[in-house]
Each structure stands twice: as C-alpha cells, then as structure tokens.
Amino acid sequence: MSSSVIGAAVSRVDGKLKVTGAACYAVDHPIENLAYGVGVPSIIANGRITCIDSSEAEKMPGVITVLHHGNADPLFRPANAFEQNSRAGESRPPFEDDTVYYYGQFVALVVANTFEQAQEAAARVKVDYAESKPLVHVGDVPAPTGSPARHYMRGDADGTFKTAPVQVDVTYTTPAETHNPMEMHGTIAVWNGDKVTLYETTQGVVNHQHVMSEMVGVPLEDVHVISPFCGSGFGGKLFPWPHSMLAAMAARRVKRPVKVSVPRTMMFTTVGHRPFTQQRVHLGATQDGKLISLQHDVLTPSSIIDDYAENCTEPTPLLYSCPNVTAQQHLVHLNIGTPTPMRGPGTTPGLFALESAMDELAIKLNLDPLEVRIRNYAETDESTNKAFSSKHLREVYQKGADRFGWSKRNPKIGSMRDGNLILGWGMASCTWPAGRSAAEVRVRLNADGTARASSATQDIGTGTYTVFAQVVSEKTGIPVNKIDVVLGDSSLPPGPMSGGSTGNASVLPAIAKAAETVVDTLMEIAVKTENSPFHNADPKTLKMAAGRIHAQDQSPESGVPFGDLLKMRRLAGIDGQAKTAPDESSRKLSSHTFGAQFCEVTWDPGIARLRVSRWLTVMDAGRIINHKTARNQILGGVVMGIGMGLFEETIYDSRNGKPLNNNFADYIVSTNADIPELDCIFVEYPDLNLNEYGARGVGEIGLTGVASALTMAVYHATGIRVRNLPIRIEQLLV
Ligand code: MOS
Question: 36, 51, 297, 526: which sits with the fewest CB atoms below 10 Å from its CB?
Fold first, then answer.
C-alpha cells in the first residue's frame, strides 16, 4: 500500500466535516462576548467625505461605537506592498483619510452587540460627500501613452507582420469578473493584551500575519492567524482586505472580540475582482500556417490606489514557436476597487484572446485548428531559451482528438447536426506556470499509533489536507485515516500561500523529508531500546512499512508497531521537521503545465438556445497525487470557464461605479443545468525536475482555454465570432 497511496483516488479526509456542517469556517468560530462590526459603504466612486453624522446611529439599541476616518485609531501601509509574504489586497489602509476612491469603499464601521443592531445602525449613519465625476470604464480615460507596465520583445514582430502573407488583426475584450466564493470574506479579531488572534478565511495565513502586523502596527509574533477551512477563494483570498484590519482595529478599541463579515454586495467592491481586459492580437503567418509574427497588446484597468496589471501576456511568448514576438500591457486607473488575481490570473483572459486569434488564423488558412497548433508547436520555451522541464502537449492534442472524435469534424459552418440541433466543435490549448516555493513541515508520530503533519499553509478547498496525508502514509504505511493534518495556523512551521497552483509542488517534498527524518529517529529508538526486538541492530537493516518497524528482509507484519516502540521509551511522540526549497538546477528549466480543451455546443436556431453538450479536458500536469481531487480541480475550472464564456460579467454603473449586479440573482455563474457530463484525462509524466514527486499544480489550469474553445464552437455552429465575452444570445441573433 505504501506506494499505491500516491495517485490513489482518496476521498477528502475533511469531506465528512464539510458535508455535515461540522467544519468551522472563519466567522463560525464560537467566541464569547463577541461584538459585531457592519461596514458603511461609500455610495460614490470619487470624491471626499465632507461630513459623517453618526449621532442617530449611536443612539440605537446595542450600538457600542461608530468608527470612521475622523475618530478611528490609525492603521498603516504595508511595508513591502506587493512583495511576497507582505502583500495586502489594497495598499491603502481603511479610514486613512476622507478620500473616496471607489463605490463600496468602507467609510465607517458600526460596532454593536448583535449583528442586527449593527446592521440597522449602519443604515442610519449619514455621510455627506463632495462628489467628482468618477472614472468607471476604460473609455472614461485617455488611452495611455507612457511606457507599458510590462513589455516583452524578440525579433521584429511589427515589421514582419506588415509583409506576412496571412494576417490576423483582431481585438478581444473580457469583462470584469467577481470571484464570489460560497464563503464570503470575514474576520473575527480577538485581542489578549497586546496580542491579536484573527480567525480568517485566507489563502495565506503567513502573508496575512505579516500584513496585519504591519498594517495594525503590532510585532509579527503578536499576530496569530487561524484559518482551518476556506470556502474557496479563487485568488480573492490571497491577500488581506480592509475588513480584516478594521476588525482588528475595532476590537482593540471596544476591548471585545469583533466579527466583521463582508456581505455579498461588498464582495463586489472591497475584496478584489478580475479586471476588464482589452486585447489586440496581430498574427502573421506563412501560407502553410507557420507563425512568423505575434503581437499581443493589452489594456487593463487598475484602481487609483494600486498598480495591478492583469498579466494577460504571460503565455504569449512561450506557447507557440514564433521568431518575432512583442507583448505589452498598459494600465489605466479607474475609480474601482483594486483588482486581484482570480483563478489563472492573466493567462485565463490572455488565452481567450491568443487562442481565439489562433482559431481565426486557422480559418483564414483553411486549416484544421488543431493542425495549426501542431505546426507551431514550441519544442523549447522561446521566451527564455530554456528547455521545458516536462512537456507532452503533442500527446495531449493526440489523445484529446482521439477521445473526442475530432477527425469527424466537418469544418463547414453549421454543417454538423443532431436532429434539429446544429453542433459546433471547438478546441484550445491551455497552459499555466508550474511554480514551487519554500516550505517547512513538521511530522509527528504519536505513541497511540497516529501521526500528525503540520504546516502554516492551508487547504482552500482543493484537497490539500488529503494529499498531505497521502504523502505521510506513503512514507510510514500509516493509514490515511490515522494521520491528522493540521494547517491554516500561522504559528506552525511556515508554509506557502495557496496560490499560483504551487502548493503541492512546494510542500510535498517537505512532508516527505520531515517524514523520513522522523522515521530515522524511530529507527534509532528501535536499535537503542533494550527491550526492542531490534536492539543493537544496524538501523540500515530496518524499514518502516504498514506503520511498523521491521527487518528489511522480513515482512512488515513481523515488525513492531511504531507506537509500541515509543511506549517502550515512555515517549508521547517524536517529531521530524524539514524545510525544502526549489533547487538551483530547476531554475535552468521552464516549468509549465499544459493541456487542451475540447468542446461541443448545440445551437437550436429555432428558439435561439445555446447549450454546452460535451466537454473533454486533457492535462499534462506531471504526476497526479490524488486522481479524485485533481479531477475535481480540473472539472471545477471548466465549470468556471463555461461561466466565463456564457455568463459572468460585473457591470459597473457609469454614473457612480456601483456594481449593478452585485448579488447572486443578477451575477450569473454556471449551475448544474448549464454543465454537461465533463470528461477529463491526464497524461502522466512525472516532472521530476520540479520536485521528487513530479507533481505540478492543477488548481488553475482547468479554467484556461475554456472560453476560447467555447467561442470557437459557437463560431463553428453559427458563423458568429464572439470577441467580447460573455457570449450573449443577442449576439447570436442576426
Ligand atoms: Mo490563485 S488566482 O493564485 O488563487
């Protein structure tokens, strides 16, 4: 069992807690003497607060205080804004001054004995503003002329394009999207003397601890962040947002624990979003379909407060082979909240443009879209001239085409039918960087026969608890259900953020090393303990399997349960701790995950109904540690991508920057009824250059490429090319 546990479709070890409601999420923590903070959001997007009259609110039953820029204790800017492990979602501390930068900004916080009292009083706080005209959409500001936020160049893309035999020049847009995890953001802040404990929902307990230390102004060791479960984040919970500092500040002021839960409406304003993107793609190719020029020009908005550039051109210089490439990104600043990474940030909207343009090129060339991609296959990462650590995209295309039946595709628009329905088939490539960072883990073996692995990283719903237990099980033979994985606590050995799909690649090697360390200690105990059957044996002749120490040449059953050895020494347990980091040699290679999306839509022209009817994703993600949780991640990404293609768009009112669809009735995400049976397969080539397990991340890549495959299928069915997401029925009625 010890080797087969890696790769097995182990069910989530935390699954039962979640489905029974026993899992304790951030604002669920039972805290005594709790007070409730409810925010007053700005109703303008640009201007100044001229007066806050809280006199009526303060007289309401149960109200303890009303805090705002005029009376709150100061909060501070993060010292290393936008650096890893010290990055806030918004670098301006809340209540810094009387300036309003976006609709929905916290302008006051009412603290009361109950949530209802705080909410009622918050509605009675009168705020007067001096309003200026807000900049809400990119069209509200002049096109940027300065140097780009990001720039990449090789060869002469512009010159080559002008003389290219086949040219594509198209502009795509993707709308602002809001993360909208089921679990809304929320914080409970509890002070004990000068120390503060924060019950949080975060993708990074360590980063959260650092930022709160800086922004609240307390020493790092006096901030304790606890986040055992996360009702998903999708990137929105990578960095702390204003409500968290407000909870800490308010709790210190009222000398009681304070809970601030962000209501769904404010989830659309103060906790980040994926920004709108406008992307112009020029492709130049030879008649036989070889790319000779690629230009990708991106415009995205950030807030007035921060420079957040959605990195749409991340895949552009490396996905295809092409000698002449430019990629540049310009920023404009609008009166909206600061954008933040959202699942597959940059690459997801970026690939919508790039992959759609590749399809438009295929059509101009009268070539199969898959064939165009194969003709431009990148054998190396041409952006860095590095070899790929492991790339099997050609096999992905082949396996996908075979399984989907791609060879039966008739390229003629509207030619494929199923009764009265017109079928459209589309495909797209996907990619996502495979990163790895440092991680530290402690593994403990207990005398009662259980084990424990702990690290200050967190499970954001992806299956982290489960795969970590699998690795401890692999190294010790202890069954997964006897291994307690403890995460989401900043006091544990420091682990990485759950971001960029890097968790597994970063932490698994540390768990393995910590487990090996503790097993070595156990061997020492086995040979040094007098009544141990292995007393005075050479530890090199021993092995640990099935939870027992045994002689290498004997079966595990012949050995001694590890708990018995610990009991012989009257030990409660023993620990092994290890820290790992990516080694230098891995920097000489380019690590990316690759994949392909294949999709079928049905179009009923009689009633203008578009349905997604079939989906296949093929992934080259290295070795899969858990086939169940990995598949879940990919399918979830596809579901979200179908939402991006068909539904999702945060619509801001031009007059005041208000997100008009700031609720689940009007902000449409995919539901079960929108999703067909989803098929997903992996080609499994362990990426041993990245880590000894050969595992790359799968949290984000499932979303990439989805919207382009979908618009391509719609084009194939209808002849209408949708370049501005989401696809709307009215765009198809012509
Ligand atoms: Mo991911 S957008 O880094 O959670």
Answer: 51
Measured distance CA(713)–CA(732) in Å, rounded: 13
Q: Is the pLDDT of residue 529 over 80?
A: yes
What does the angle CA 83 – CA 508 – CA 2 come to, to the nearest 5 degrees? 175
Distance 11 CA to ligand 1 centre (A): 23
Number of CB atoms found within 10 A of residue 438's CB: 14
Residues with CB under 6 A from ligand 1: 203, 233-235, 238, 341-343, 345, 499-500, 700
H helices present in 427-532, as ranges: 464-476, 503-528
By the 8 A CB rule, do 244 and 200 touch?
yes
Give the three-state DSSP class for 470. Answer: helix
Alpha carbons 66 and 123: distance in angstroms, whole number = 12
**In this structure, what is the dihedral angle of CA atoms 619, 622, 623, 624, given to the nearest 10 degrees?**
-40
User: Per the structure block, which two tokens stand in for 554?
Assistant: 């004997």
State yes or no: pLDDT of 1 exceeds 60.
Answer: no
The whole-angstrom separation of Cα 478 and Cα 102 is 53
User: Which atom from ligand 1 is nearest to the alpha carbon of 234?
Assistant: 4
Q: Can you tell me which atom of ligand 1 is nearest the CA of 498?
A: 4
Distance from C-alpha of 109 to C-alpha of 449, rounded to nearest angstrom: 49
Q: Which of 177, 185, 238, when mutated, tests ligand 1's pocket best, judged by the most ligand atoms within 8 Å of its CB?
A: 238
Q: How far is it, in rounded angstroms, from Cα 47 to Cα 29?
A: 38
How much distance in Å is there from the Cα of 378 to the middle of ligand 1? 26
Q: Residue 49 has which token pair?
A: 């607060």
Q: Name the one residue in this structure whose structure tokens are 């960029």.
A: 500
Condensed to tens digits (0 to 9), the pLDDT of residues 606-615 reads 999 999 999 9
User: What percent of the chain is predicted at pLDDT more than 70?
Assistant: 99
pTM: 0.97
Q: Do residues 512 and 471 lie in contact, with contact meaning Cβ atoms separated by under 8 Å?
A: yes
Which among 312, 644, 700 is the best mutation to test ligand 1's pocket, defined by most ligand atoms within 8 Å of the CB? 700
Full set of structural domains in the chain with CATH = 15-22+436-581 (3.30.365.10), 377-435+589-732 (3.30.365.10)
Length of the chain: 734
Q: What is the 3-state secondary structure (H, E, C) of 144-207?
A: CCCCCCEEEEECCHHHHHHCCCEEEEEEEEECCECCCCCCCCEEEEEEECCEEEEEECCCCHHH
**Coil/strand/helix, residue 403:** helix
